[in-house]
Write a structure and sequence with these properties.
By secondary structure, the chain is α/β, with parallel strands linked by helices. The protein has a single domain, classed as 3-Layer(aba) Sandwich (Glutaredoxin). Helix content is 42%, strand content 22%. A hairpin with a 4-residue loop joins strand 1 and strand 2. The longest helix has 16 residues. It is globular. InterPro entries: Redoxin, Thioredoxin-like_sf, Thioredoxin_domain, Thioredoxin_ResA/DsbE_sf.
């Protein structure tokens, strides 16, 4: 009985930690990210730019082999969903590598970099445990898909299609 209760508690706890969120925490929104022009911009101000638009956020890093392998699929998503805005949030370790990655992979969209990489304040605030990571926000600003990874492209595409009917 005791083992069953422990197992049940573990399952419930894991399920709740993986729950879908429909908004970002105050901590995430107040965190600043580095823009390509060198300025610091709050995540909240970045998101305000996309009000009224469907937004696909890709959290990535130039050093991440899974991220690089997923780039053709990202470009396919962009081609299939031209009305969707694209925001790339980098977890790179250096500004130089981040900018080289953007240019090398010809990533179309807006780009910002976390100041303290994956395990920093921003990464923790968005529950970042893997890159690439995809988040979809609808035209009202509500998160409709909070945690998707590179194996979820079919799901990502169907959500984007549904939002842009």
């Amino acid at each position: 009985m005791k083992k069953t209760l422990i197992l049940l508690f573990a399952v419930i706890n894991f399920s709740c930690s993986q729950a879908q969120k429909n908004s970002f925490s105050k901590e995430a929104l107040s965190e600043t990210l580095l823009a390509t022009n060198g300025s610091q911009v709050s995540f909240e101000d970045i998101l305000k730019k996309y009000k009224g638009k469907t937004l696909l956020i890709e959290v990535w890093a130039s050093w991440c082999s899974d991220c690089v392998k997923a780039i053709p699929k990202t470009k396919e998503l962009q081609a299939n969903n031209p009305g969707v805005a694209n925001l790339f949030l980098s977890m790179d370790r250096t500004v130089e590598n981040w900018k080289i990655g953007i240019e090398k992979h010809e990533l179309k969209g807006d780009h910002f970099m976390a100041n303290d990489q994956m395990k920093g304040i921003f990464g923790k605030a968005i529950d970042l445990d893997w890159v690439p990571r995809y988040i979809i926000i609808d035209k009202t600003g509500k998160i409709v898909l909070y945690r998707a990874i590179e194996t979820d492209f079919e799901k990502i595409n169907s959500v984007l299609k549904e939002l842009n009917k």
